[in-house]
Amino acid sequence: MAPRRFNNPFHGVVDMISEMNRISDSMSSLESGQAGDKERGYSDAWSPPTDILARGSDLVLRCEIAGVHEEDVSVSFNDGILSISGERHRDEDDVVYYTSERFMGTFRRRVSLPEGVKEEDIEASYAEGLLEITVRGGANARGPKRITVRKRAPKRS
Q: What angle do CA 15, 122, 17 make, to 5 degrees?
């Protein structure tokens, strides 16, 4: 039996600023080969590549953050927004890099979760450079509601 396919309730809800930063960073690093040269702060944080998928009725987010220590990762949930943040540190101070393609410094990613998700529905685990966040029952959320747009009557002068 084929798995049940869900409508994507996350179409267009990934934090647009984070996504645009990630795309811009990816393009500039391809051109220069120097993605990791500049340490980043929270205002210009890089965004880790993230997959959002359904596993049964659960929603699963996977963030690729290789080289980040578990204690340097933070996951929070507030007002329907899941926030993932942390920092990747350089290995040593006295090393000369010939090329550096991994982003260093702080990172962040924000994703809107479906209405009705509670903090106790969310679990996070981290191993081998992959942060996996499971939202129990999150894949069963309905997609956005479509609003009918009607033609407005012309103003009378």
A: 5
- More confident site: 139 or 141: 139
With vertex at residue 38, the alpha carbon angle to CA 44 and CA 72, rounded to the nearest 5 degrees, is: 65
Point out which residues pair with 122 in neighbouring strands: 135
End-to-end CA distance of the chain: 64
| pLDDT of 7 | 58
Polymer length in residues for the chain: 157
Over residues 15-65, the pLDDT tens digits come to 566 667 666 766 665 555 454 455 555 556 788 999 999 999 999 999 999
Determine which helix (DSSP H) or strand (DSSP E) holds 27, and give its type and residue range. Answer: helix 16-32
Cα gap 129→139, rounded to integer Å: 24
Give CA–CA dist 140/56, Å, rounded: 9
pTM as predicted: 0.67
Alpha carbons 81 and 59: distance in angstroms, whole number: 14
Distance CA 57, CA 37 (A): 41
